[in-house]
């Protein structure tokens, strides 16, 4: 093996500092959430216990933690499903040139450029002008889609740009209809990418604050509830909540990754079985 150059160690140190900067606040919150009953919000820690995690499951004097969690989880699932469906439909549509496609594309990605708080304000004003209820499941849902759909569509663009059209042609030569080709050929091939879009949709919705601030109505989502608690709660119970939500986020990411691995192995197994059958 060739000896590593000095630049390698310099880059390794820079990368290590970047990782520490990125995950340091999360680790700090995680450590402080295990303080004893007399613990505070800063170091040094006063004892070590699970007191604040148990306290989190009791009735809180301020806020509605578990109600806001259920709303964020439900909203994330709603956004995830719509993002996947619309992104796939949009990706299929943009495979063919049609009048106004360029302008439509720029209109879709424009919401990524506009400040999120202005999107929230605009959606809230539209609902008020139309005399609709400003609610997390309607106006909040629509505001978050302006954030997730562009990302989903951009992912689908990358997927279909690398998609081999010969699979579709072979299916049509065998008599498959357009719907059968999409259902039995296209969707199974791009399934791992669809899981990626679903993960994007859910995680972006679950922790979105700015686009939900003025569109959630009188019922907070979890990010809004946490921000509200920072002005009232002065105990490590807030850190315990942050630790649990972080663990939940990593569990969701891990679940999606395991699903991708399962689908890849299943497809590889199906391909090997087909090859044995041909032999």
UniProtKB/TrEMBL annotation:
Q: How does it sit in the membrane?
A: Multi-pass membrane protein
Q: Name one GO biological process term.
A: transmembrane transport
Q: Which InterPro entries match?
A: Bact_Polyamine_Transport (IPR051789), MetI-like (IPR000515), MetI-like_sf (IPR035906)
Q: Which residues cross the membrane?
A: 7-34, 73-92, 104-129, 141-160, 181-204, 237-263
Its GO CC terms are: plasma membrane
Gene3D superfamilies referenced in this protein's UniProt entry, alphabetically:
MetI-like
Transmembrane helix among keywords: yes
State its location(s). Answer: Cell membrane
CDD domains cross-referenced by the UniProt entry:
TM_PBP2
Domain ABC transmembrane type-1, which positions? Answer: 69-262
Cite the entry's keywords alphabetically: Cell membrane, Membrane, Transmembrane, Transmembrane helix, Transport
Is Nucleotide-binding among the key words of this record?
Answer: no
Q: Which Pfam families match?
A: BPD_transp_1
Q: Which family does it belong to?
A: Belongs to the binding-protein-dependent transport system permease family. CysTW subfamily.
Descriptive protein name: ABC transporter permease
């Amino acid at each position: 093996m060739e000896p590593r150059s000095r630049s390698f160690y310099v880059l390794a140190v820079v990368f290590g500092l970047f990782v520490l900067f990125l995950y340091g606040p999360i680790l700090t919150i995680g450590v402080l959430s295990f303080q004893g009953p007399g613990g505070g919000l800063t170091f040094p820690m006063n004892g070590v216990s699970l007191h604040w995690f148990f306290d989190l499951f009791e009735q809180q004097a301020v806020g509605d933690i578990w109600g806001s969690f259920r709303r964020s989880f439900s909203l994330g699932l709603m956004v995830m499903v719509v993002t996947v469906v619309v992104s796939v439909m949009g990706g299929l549509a943009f495979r063919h040139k049609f009048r106004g496609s360029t302008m439509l594309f720029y209109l879709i990605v424009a919401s990524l450029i506009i400040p999120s708080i202005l999107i929230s304000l605009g959606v809230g004003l539209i609902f008020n002008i139309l005399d609709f209820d400003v609610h997390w499941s309607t106006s909040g849902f629509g505001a978050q889609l302006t954030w997730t759909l562009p990302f989903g569509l951009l992912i689908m663009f990358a997927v279909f740009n690398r998609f081999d059209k010969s699979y579709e042609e072979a299916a049509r030569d065998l008599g498959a209809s357009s719907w059968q080709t999409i259902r039995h050929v296209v969707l199974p091939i791009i399934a791992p990418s669809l899981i990626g879009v679903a993960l994007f949709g859910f995680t972006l919705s679950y922790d979105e604050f700015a686009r939900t601030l003025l569109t959630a109505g009188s019922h907070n989502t979890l990010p809004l509830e946490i921000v509200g608690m920072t002005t009232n709660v002065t105990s490590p119970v807030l850190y315990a909540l942050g630790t649990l939500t972080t663990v939940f986020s990593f569990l969701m990411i891990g679940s999606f990754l395991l699903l991708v691995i399962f689908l890849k192995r299943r497809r590889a197994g199906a391909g090997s079985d087909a090859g044995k059958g041909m032999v």
